[in-house]
Amino acid sequence: MPQAMILAAGRGERLRPLTDQRPKPLLPVRGKPLIEWQIEGLVRAGFDEIVVNGAWLAEPLESFLAQGQRWGITLHWSRENQALGTAGGVVQALPFLTDPIFAVVSADIHTTYAYELLRVRLERWRNSLEGEGVDQPPLAHLVLVEDERYPPDFSLDAKGRVTLPTGRAGTYGNIGLFRRSFFTSLERGENADLGALLRDAVSRHQVSGEWTVSPWINVGTLAEWQRAEKLFEGV
């Protein structure tokens, strides 16, 4: 039963006033809430257990997710009194994320990236963990996007390992696979972001990655929200 987590607890400050009365994951793009696109993409790829966290305006988001049976999956709700950050939110939800490997995506991106690619890699990693005398998978795998509108986070070396940005560089697309052991340095309830943990793991060559050319946008500002409608028109 492949598991995934959708990070949905952010305040959406740069999307105000839209997010003053509505949580960012429920903002519509192409006639559907952002988070619904993510859920549908994960379900199509075979992820049948999904965890969603929430903090700001959590009640309407929780009410929306209560309709989870229509997607035919197991859907868990991880409530945070205050947003715990991208890494802290995952750690808070670990009681639901029982698999040794799971996907993590953000609710506020919009993309046509095929999550089937993540699921296939997840199964391969799981087989590696269960095998004996084989190479162990890295701690994380990131999907990178090459778009000059976003600051570069990482590069890839010839072996497909993520490095600090040099030469061809791209932004982390907020799509990835993570092993539970990636988060062992954090306690539940601790506020922490993925960035610092990723840079540390990258420095130890424990993160792999891939480039995607699929349309992708981080819906973090009013301009990006408007651009998302145009970018995906007819897709």
UniProtKB/TrEMBL annotation:
GO MF, one annotated term: transferase activity
Keyword vocabulary terms for this entry: Transferase
Family annotation (Gene3D superfamilies): Spore Coat Polysaccharide Biosynthesis Protein SpsA, Chain A (3.90.550.10)
Cited SUPFAM superfamilies: Nucleotide-diphospho-sugar transferases
Enzyme Commission number(s) of this protein: 2.-.-.-
Domain Nucleotidyl transferase span(s) in chain numbering: 4-116
Protein known as: Nucleotidyl transferase
Species annotation: mine drainage metagenome
